[in-house]
Amino acid sequence: MRPIEVVERLGRWSSGRGPLYLLLATRLRALIDDGELPAGVLLPPDRALANALAVGRTTVVAAYDLLRSEGRIVRRQGSGTRVAGVPSGGPVEDAPVDPIFLDSLEARDDDVLLAICAAPGDPPPQLADAFAQLDLSRITNDIGYYPYGYPTLRAALADRYTARGVPTAPEQILVTNGGQQALSLLAHALVSPGDQVVVEAPTYPGALEVFREQGAVLRGLPVGLEGFEAAVRERRPAVAYVIPTYHNPTGAVLSSLARQRLAATGVPLIEDEVPADLGFPGEPQLTPIAAYGANVISIGSLSKSIWGGLRIGWIRAATPLINRVARLRAVHDLGGNVPTQLAAVHLLPLLDGPALHETLKSRHDHLRSLLSEALPTWELPTIAGGQCLWARLPHGDGVSFAQTALRHGLAILPGTTLDITGASNHHIRLHFRAQPPDLTEAVHRLTKAWTAYTPPPNRIHPRPSIAI
Questions:
Q1: 193-246: per-residue pLDDT in tens?
Q2: Does 123 score more than 70 pLDDT?
Q3: Burial of 385 by CB count in 10 Å (0-12 exposed, 13-18 middle, 19+ buried)?
């Protein structure tokens, strides 16, 4: 491809914030991921592209090197720089979210079972009851715009944090349209292009995407952010992201001492509490990390506990940050749906009721029993809550097996889409939120796929050491 052709496709690539090499890499990454620069395309040499863009050669070299580390391009002396396409395995620094994962956010019209998006498959009957209790006629002289969230829900969420050992005022709560919007707003507020962001490896892939969108440089640490203090001393990150309770995807739970140590660093710490309400019956509720430091920002959501279509999330943070994030939010969204927020007030008690936790445990046990019988060589961790199993394959890799499973009518999430270090290539994530008949059918298809699976040659994945 000639330099002029690439320049035309890049558009106004340099108009954003941050170093030029990051802006160039971001735009080239988007063209590759969208298919506008398909696999095999020969990219211009460093010097030729630099001349066409009127930048220094080091800018192009740095951008190419970043894309090479992500697995999106291949650079070989004598054969030039070619597009490799979306990474499909091996150690990568910033692997993109798998397209299968993104497709799973909408219902399919084929016969493919989704074992990807870990959210309840059906709205609970209490959802309809909550809306039936609303009396909107009582709302008068109210235009309905609430960028911070409806006051009644903010107060209810503040009370719930206070009851859990984190004294909270309503002014410290911002209601969002789901946990993903909460993450996106915080990334926009706290991260600039080129900033270091520390994440667990593996972790929730939606978080990786919002940080990448801001041009962050992601650094992975083992689950629980083991070694975080040293990472802070060596290169102070702009922010860190952790899932301390029923970690997605491993199900790990961080101890109280480890929570205090993370908060003590003083680094802005985003504590994702979305899975925190998904404990099995009888499991103790640990105090949020936010109880140990004003630098901790908590996010939560009803989407994983009640229903994915209930777009209610929130941020709990110091009031100045809440005010700042509310101003950012108002640029794109003047406020959430008021009736839905009023219904959410009636639904919050479900988080502490027995039905949710008993259902989770029952479905977990059902899936685990079926997998242990049908696929006894797979390693399945023992967990006390959450929404998924982090299964380790005895051989092969998650990416190629996910492709085999899809041909057998089952969509699963390979470990590389959740791990920026590439160390989870031998894992897949399976959720247990579906109805038991669907879980049974999923294991049936999974077993057929495993029987038919032939691992690619020359792929050996050593067992990593992950501290939990």
A1: 888 999 999 999 999 989 988 888 899 999 999 999 999 998 889 999 999 999
A2: yes
A3: buried
Average pLDDT taken over every residue of the chain: 87
Q: Which CATH superfamily is domain 99-122+354-452 in?
A: Aspartate Aminotransferase, domain 1 (3.90.1150.10)
* Contact (CB, 8 A) for 175 and 154: yes
Strand partners for 221: 200
* pTM beyond 0.70: yes
Question: What CA–CA distance (Å, rounded) separates 301 from 456?
Answer: 39
In the sheet with 313-316, reading across from the earlier edge strand, the strands are 173-176, 313-316, 296-301, 269-272, 239-242, 196-200, 217-221
The 10s digit of each residue's pLDDT in 137-160 is: 788 778 788 899 999 999 999 999
Residues in contact with 21: Cβ distance below 8 Å, sequence separation at least 6, in sequence order: 58, 59, 60, 62, 63, 66
Give residue limits of the domains in the chain.
Answer: 3-83, 99-122+354-452, 143-350
Do 196 and 237 contact (CB within 8 A), yes or no? yes
Task: Find all residues with CB under 8 Å of 92, minimum gap 6, and list them.
Answer: 69, 70, 71, 416, 420, 422
- CA-CA distance, 22 to 62, in Å (whole number)? 8
Do the beta carbons of residue 433 and residue 374 sit within 8 Å?
Answer: no
> For tokens 């930048």, what's the residue?
55
Residues 213, 247: Cα–Cα separation, whole Å: 23
| Class of 3-83 in CATH | mainly alpha
The pair of structure tokens assigned to 362 is 């029952």
Q: What is the DSSP letter of 109?
A: S
Count CB neighbours of 43 within 10 A: 23
Tokens of 453: 């699976």
User: Is the separation of the CB atoms in 272 and 204 below 8 Å?
Assistant: yes
> What topology does CATH give the domain 143-350?
Aspartate Aminotransferase; domain 2 (3.40.640)
**Buried (b) or exposed (e) across 245-254, using 16+ Cβ within 10 A?**
bbbbbbbbbb
Euclidean distance between CA atoms 30 and 61, whole angstroms: 18
DSSP notation for 283-301: ---PPPGGGG-TTEEEEEE
For the segment 75-94, what is each residue's pLDDT rounded down to a tens digit?
Answer: 887 778 989 854 444 333 34
Beta carbons of 89 and 425 less than 8 angstroms apart: yes
- Alpha-carbon span 56 to 168, nearest angstrom: 51
Token pair recorded at residue 141: 């002289």
274, two tokens: 């979305």
Q: Quote the CA–CA distance of 132 and 383 in Å, as a whole number.
A: 37
